[in-house]
Fold:
Amino acid sequence: MLQTRLIAPAENAHPAPLLIKRLLLSGIRYEKTREIVYRDQLRYSYATLNERIARLANVLTEAGVKAGDTVAVMDWDSHRYLECMFAIPMIGAVLHTINIRLSADQILYTMNHADDKFVLVNSEFVPLYQSIEGQLTTVEKTILLTDTADKTAELGGLVGEYETLLAAASPTYEFADFDENSVATTFYTTGTTGNPKGVYFTHRQLVLHTMAMASTVSALDSIRLMGNADVYMPITPMFHVHAWGVPYVATMLGVKQVYPGRYEPELLMKLIQQEKVTFSHCVPTILQMLMNTPSAKGHDFGGLRMIIGGSALNRALYEAAKATGIQLTAAYGMSETCPLISCAYINEELLAGSEDERTAYRIKAGVPVPLVEAAIMNSEGKLLPNDGEAQGELVLRAPWLTQGYFREPQKSEELWEHGWLHTGDVAAIDDMGFIEIRDRIKDVIKTGGEWISSLELEDLISRHPAVREVAVVGVADPQWGERPFALLVLRDGQSLDAKGLKEHLKPFVDQGSINKWAIPSQIALVTEVPKTSVGKLDKKRIRLDIAQWLAAGSAFLSTV
Structure:
């Protein structure tokens, strides 16, 4: 082991553990009168935010929450959620952000698996909660969250209504220091099989992630997504990886924050316009939803900057957003990575090139952010060269990666095999350090002995002017092993069949971008592509649907 030099600190020196409470200190010092806005219903200052967090800490403590207890939240994106993101871990408890878009059975599983003891429930989710309440094994008390005048609900162990409780609580709280490696948050990520898996993050991890993200979004000149004079509104659910960690960054910097509650496209547009939102983030499908909103037609979004993650950013969406004044920047991460790993960056070499080349790099997964190591590994655990050609599984190291799956030792060992976190993504890294995600390992299509990237094919298909949305999966084929199959949602008034799609893709074959086997021989025209609970393409569901359509000979299938 490497021998290093250690010096004992002064007897009275303060160890200054990296705790979430320290992220709360600076925002009020910078801009104590700057606002936190909730829908078109409420606004208050940073000074009030800090006071409300103290009040919530008192409410929870008086209700019996102790250090180490797990406190769950079922809410839309709100000021209350922001307060919970601080108050719950700051008293030493663990915040469980419940994915309210999971099935009732899955939510029940996650709550029992996490040992939730206290639950804050939005009134809109009371019927859902009541349907599983009798099967919860560890929950002791509940708190009602509501935007309505009705402050009552039939909830077991109900302590009271959130605002009423806060109003009666003390506005000060002495938040203690404790071990920075204490777990602060947990949530559950769904895979293709089995029950959701619990990931967890410590105070130290969240603080370091916040610092790295802050430097990425504000200090890198070709990115420059958010400074503290910007106006921030998430369009990513706060239950999904802490809204990608951005609320912690925004609060630390004293940024004006706007929380939209339930996602209603017209209200999102209203808030963007009225509150002058300049920075947001979401998955591609949510951005498409926003851009298709009637009030978005003809609107100049000039000045709005957005991170796109969760799914690949294709060129067609990038160009369509750019035409409306939205500057998109691709980023990469996953639930297990807290989530930020890399962000698109335009270096001096690319600045000297063409706009087309710069666009190609703006939609890639980007360059690893500070403190992240990224590598490509083959199936034997050997690291491959960063030459832009070799491809293998993207593996990672960083101070904020989850250390395992909660109560899943075997899956945790698999996640960290060979000492690197395994992403399940096929990727290449070039000599400039740019990560290019080629596909999910389970989504790569092998046909006629050739590997085809479903992501690359989706990008090329999306460039057809008639296509609004596309998903590509492999389907079994007796001759070729697999063949690509495309689901298409067309723009209003447009038409396209399998023959027309073949003609669109043929030039890309001639250029060598794809091989001829990549052209789908069958497509399906649908009104909607299935999505997961966080807005990603649900390729597991898509494969099942296609199998049923093929067996039934559905009329909306088109064959070359």
User: Anything to note?
Assistant: The chain has three domains: 20-202, 203-370, 444-559. The radius of gyration is 24 Å. The domain at 203-370 is CATH 3.40.50.12780 (Rossmann fold). Residues 497 and 518 are 16 Å apart (CA to CA).
